[in-house]
Amino acid sequence: MKKESNALEQLELWNILYPNKPLQIGCKVKVHPDCPYQTDWNDEYIITGLCVDYHRDCKLNITIADHLTDAGSDGWGAGDLVAA
Questions:
Q1: At a CB cut-off of 8 Å and minimum separation 6, what does 23 contact?
Q2: Residue 76 belongs to what domain range?
Q3: Do 23 and 78 contact (CB within 8 A), yes or no?
Q4: Is residue 34 included in any domain, yes or no?
Q5: How does pLDDT run across 11-37, given as a tens digit for each residue?
Q6: Considering its fold, how many domains does the chain have in total?
């Protein structure tokens, strides 16, 4: 998935790659093996936040966490993650 894709393109590509796992809060994900942060984030996570960042060319800004009540870490894009 291209990092420079806008939110709509990222959602469409996610739905093609993972048709039975919609990109939504509660979705279980892992960090993509090609992501430079994968070695630090090698567990399974839950999406706890999802928004469009209008200051970054309308890209998705995804928050992932260990569980739903955790504050988590934001700044992830759809290209950084894979469905678990």
A1: 10, 11, 14, 15, 47, 50, 60, 62, 78
A2: 7-83
A3: yes
A4: yes
A5: 999 999 999 999 999 999 999 999 999
A6: 1
